[in-house]
Amino acid sequence: MELKGKVAVVTGAAQGLGRGFSEVLLKNGAKVALLDINEKVGKALETHFNEVYGAEKAIFFTADVSSDAQFKDVFQKILSRFGHVDIFCNNAGIINEKDWEKTVSVNLSGVVRGTYLALDHMKKENGGSGGVIVNTASLAGLGPFPSAPIYTATKYGVVGFTRAIAGASALVDYGVRINALCPSFVQTPLLDSFKSTEITGQFYGLRSTTEAIMAKFPTLEVEEVVKGLLLLVKDESLNGECLMIKSEEAALISFPKDHIKTPVTL
Asked: Of 175, 167, 171, 185, nearest to 240 (Cα)?
């Protein structure tokens, strides 16, 4: 996909990966709707981006992706402003093992909400022009992270949902590609959550395990993951893919069809 003149939506855009995704899309000629709950930082980022990339290239909207009403309302505002959406990045995410229902609502339900909003607008059967959706999962969506079981569950869910809805899109010919990014630990404010007892709750005692896992997977810079986003957006042959990104390694994951390893007697 050629990005010049395209319209993108990025959730969780105020900082971290969301900010990086927004900037690379702007650099490549797209207009970007920035969604986040942090209005102060988001508005400042809108001003900065428009100074760097041109007036009205970026616009910020306050939105909580765990609220169905807010998400729908903001999406309509985006359509009123830009007329259409070509790229949708479901990136908003949190880590909170204490408030696990909130974590599920943001990390998984928020991805489902965003995907369905984008699909309803983009798919051919509704008169749409197609497009691409990229969902931010995690390496924790490919292998369990014992210190954060709820976070792990949501990211497994994002991977499974992405693969299934991408398959449905291909079978019904929606004209929309859906892919997932699965990076290891990234140098963002979210990383500090693993050090907080208020966030990790009953699993804070596993902090040595967390440290060991983090030592095994050196922290990525945002720029490394941004390259993966560009690949999933621009390469029109990719649909239903999960791009794993680790230090000095990126790979499209091939999922085995037969998961049975050892026969058992029931």
From this structure: 167
Q: What are phi and psi of 254, to 5 degrees?
A: -105, 115
Q: pLDDT, tens digit, for every residue of 68-125?
A: 999 999 999 999 999 999 999 999 999 999 999 999 999 999 999 999 999 999 999 9
pLDDT value at residue 114: 98
Give the residue ranges of the chain where pLDDT is below 50.
none
According to DSSP H, which parts of the chain are helical?
16-27, 39-53, 68-82, 100-104, 110-122, 149-172, 197-200, 207-216, 222-234
CB 141 within 8 A of CB 111: no
Q: What is the dihedral of CA 169, 9, 157, 63, to 10 degrees?
A: -130
Q: What pLDDT, in 10s, does the model give residues 158-169?
A: 999 999 999 999
| Contact status, residue 243 vs residue 232, Cβ threshold 8 Å | yes
Backbone φ/ψ region at 249: left (φ over 0), alpha (ψ -120 to 50), beta: beta
Catalytic residues, by residue number, are 151
Q: Quick one: pLDDT at residue 15?
A: 96
Please give the angle made by the CA atoms of 7, 133 and 167, to the nearest 5 degrees: 145
Q: What's the Cα-to-Cα distance from 93 to each of 37, 85, 90, 245, rounded to whole Å?
A: 11, 21, 9, 18
Q: Which of 72, 167, 179 is nearest to 116 (CA)?
A: 72
Question: 135: closest CA among 100, 171, 160?
Answer: 160
